[in-house]
Design goal:
Length: 183
Amino acid sequence: MNKEFHTLEDFVGTHFIYTYDNGWEYCKNDHTVDYRIHGGMVAGRWVKDQEAHINLLTDGVYKIAWTEPTGTDVALDFIPNEHKLNGTIFFPKWVQDHPEITVCYQNEHIDLMQESRKKYDTYPKMVVPEFAQITYIGDVGTDNGETIAEAPYKGMTDDIRNGNYYDENYRIIKKDGHKYVQE
């Protein structure tokens, strides 16, 4: 997709796949994001309806920032017209020491995230600053519940990039295992 981005309205409702450790994010509306993590120490983690601050910094440049129930802070700068992203993630010490606790569908385990944040050390934070290449841009529209609707699996980002995951209306194609087929 070669969409031009200038306003906040251009950005909201867009599905991005970006690659450093294969992070993925959907700017669901003007105040929440849904995302899955496909690589790195918390691969397999996925979240829906994460409250976030989503702002237009200047023409075509956006900032998304949030704090997770884990205590992890995230700040991402998107430059989609250039297919670039810069982000910094601030992992609490407990996530660095026990990442397996966070590898789940977070929405069903908020109490566990908050309990772990109190039980384990939060400092010093592990700071992960990275640049990323945006490798996919999809015009999903706002509040599309199917954009991030299941746990990540190996090859999912390739299925999406190759047009084998969503149909022309951005609905998940029925699947046989993880091989997507049209009916």
